[in-house]
Amino acid sequence: MDPGLAQRVERLEQVEAIKALKHQYWRACDAKDPKAFRDSFVREGARIDYGRLGAFDDAAPMAEIFTKVALHQVDGKHVIFDMHHGVHPEITVTGPGTATGRWTLRFRQINLIDNTEKLMTGEYDDEYVVEDGRWKMSKCHFTETWAMVRPLPEGFVVTPGAFAEVTQ
Q1: What residue ranges in the chain does DSSP mark as E strands?
Q2: Is 117 exposed, middle or buried (CB count within 10 Å of its CB: 0-12, 13-18, 19+)?
Q3: 45 neighbors 59 (Cβ within 8 angstroms)
Q4: What is the DSSP code (8-state) at residue 72?
Q5: pLDDT value, residue 112
Q6: How confident is the model at residue 158 (pLDDT cuts 50, 70, 90)?
Q7: Contacts with 86 (C-beta within 8 Å, 6 or more apart), sequence order
Q8: What is the pLDDT of residues 26-59, one digit of tens each?
Q9: How far apart are CA 159 and CA 168, in angstroms?
Q10: I need a labelling partner for 123 at 20 to 30 A (CA). Which of 14, 22, 52, 139 fits?
């Protein structure tokens, strides 16, 4: 095989693996899965900045916040429902086992504590490294572009579906 072709195929495979990692991260957020959320980051020293949610020098404190918010229940029922859609990936493999990425987030949240719906968009600025043979996020910075919060209409009903049985 042509060495140039082999390198291009390897780079494409790396980009696809990074896309799968980011999608795994968003699925973990929406599925209320703290373990999968935490496993998206390097073991130690991930630089995370989520704006109003805080900035951290490791993923563990953010995973704790995620757990408290995502798994919060009132009367045995979840009260926060999120939907994360990442689009427009720009991923650059920068060297052996390193890459950068930029994504646009489309976010929607139903908050039954405040009886609100939030729509938001923003930009992720990420760095990735290979750790134990798998791509992980070593940096994840989110910058909100805009958000809109509106009250839920009277009589609004949430049907929790598959995540109704999720517990800590």
Answers
A1: 47-49, 55-56, 73-74, 77-78, 80-95, 98-111, 116-131, 134-151
A2: middle
A3: no
A4: -
A5: 94
A6: confident
A7: 22, 23, 26, 103, 104, 105, 106, 124
A8: 999 999 999 999 999 999 999 999 998 899 999 9
A9: 20
A10: 14
Global pTM reads 0.90
Location of structure tokens 């504590």: 113
Element (H, E) at 28: helix 3-31
Q: Mean pLDDT throughout 129-133?
A: 98
Q: Which residue has the tokens 């980009």?
A: 15
Nearest to 19 by CA among 107, 103, 121: 103
Q: Answer yes or no: is pLDDT of 166 > 50.
A: no
Residue 85: is its pLDDT beyond 80?
A: yes
Between strands 116-131 and 98-111, the pairing is antiparallel
DSSP string covering 30-55, please?
HHT-HHHHHHTB-SS--EEE-GGG-E
